[in-house]
Design brief:
four-stranded parallel sheet, globular, 318 residues, alpha/beta, 36% helix, Rossmann fold, binds phosphoric acid mono(formamide)ester
């Protein structure tokens, strides 16, 4: 397997990035800086009632040109727990419907005295493009099939809290609609930097052999992969992005790649089940598994708030 070994237990280092647009190129020490900050924030998320005042007087704008439940509300909650003000901008209901460009929208929101823009868009590269035209920090909240860096960080943070900080040698299977997933790319970059091994599994149309170029093993045989891994991360079949790569039928997809109760019995005793959400219950993941004892899915959501607190604090306050 073409897996790059990497230092896993790097010490945290000072944060110097103005934006977080990708996990590609983010080193282990930078990730550990985020995780150290998230550890400090997590008690506030787990037992609400208190706030930090780290970002008092600052303002965060969530600019979501594409729908979201977890990411948008997680960033909102994160900003509130740091005592920041939050502005919400959606594609629908904003002047983008009158033809305003994404860059003009972002520059106008920045001109209201905003310290960071959290941007989601259905096209890859929009957060990067916006970052090139504003002075404040920009966080990519998911852009097309490109990346979703805070999702990658919260997934890795969840694994570190479960297995311990050293993920070197851990095996993570990421299963399903790989080719259309921004979550998978951020996870691959982050996990490989920390020395973990990634296997992607799915039907050939959605998990082509060319993905091996990212340094992962590619498999089309989920039953053969499951006994080998510590973690199975299921991905949503992204029907809205399937153009050009079809699945034969949802029935056939389920047969080959759904994580069913029967299939979880192939996993080692200690293995955990993840999903970034939203879940197509009964397609890629059965409810007995999503809500079962191996699932850490809601823990991912809780950790997501702490990770976003850490990222906002580092981007705005350094
Ligand atoms: N995981 C994730 O990005 O979910 P949302 O689309 O609900 O934000």
């Amino acid at each position: 397997m073409n897996q790059a070994p990497a230092p896993a237990a790097a010490a945290p280092r000072p944060w110097t990035r103005r934006h977080l647009l990708s996990l590609e190129g983010v080193c282990a020490a930078e990730m550990q800086r985020v995780f150290a900050e998230a550890e400090r924030c997590l008690p506030l998320v787990m037992a609400p009632g208190r706030k930090f005042d780290d970002l008092a007087g600052h303002c965060v704008a969530n600019i979501f040109f594409e729908d979201s439940t977890r990411t948008r509300n997680s960033f909102t909650r994160a900003a509130q727990l740091l005592s920041a003000d939050v502005i919400q901008v959606s594609g629908e209901g904003s002047s983008t419907s009158k033809g305003e460009t994404e860059i003009d929208t972002a520059r106008n929101i920045e001109a209201m005295g905003v310290d960071a823009l959290v941007v989601r868009h259905s096209s890859a590269g929009v957060p990067r493009n916006i970052a090139d035209h504003v002075r404040c920090g920009v966080v990519n909240a998911g852009d097309g099939r490109h990346e979703h860096p805070t999702q990658g960080l919260l997934d890795i943070f969840t694994l570190q809290r479960h297995f311990g900080p050293d993920l070197a040698g851990r095996r993570i299977a990421i299963v399903g609609d790989i080719i259309n997933s921004r979550v998978v790319r951020s996870n691959i970059f982050g996990l490989r930097t920390l020395g973990a091994q990634v296997i992607v599994a799915g039907p050939p149309a959605l998990a082509p052999a060319s993905l091996g170029a990212l340094g992962v093993e590619v498999s089309h045989d989920l039953d053969a992969v499951l006994p080998l891994v510590d973690v199975v991360m299921m991905l949503r079949v992204q029907f809205e992005r399937l153009a050009g790569q079809s699945i034969a039928s949802t029935h056939e997809y389920r047969d080959g790649y759904a994580l069913t109760e029967r299939r979880t019995r192939l996993l080692p005793e200690h293995a955990v089940v993840m999903h970034p959400g939203p879940i197509n219950r009964g397609l890629e993941l059965d409810s007995e598994v999503a809500d079962g004892p191996r699932s850490v899915i809601l823990r991912q959501v809780t950790h997501g708030v702490a990770i976003r607190m850490a990222v906002l604090k580092l981007i705005i306050a350094g």
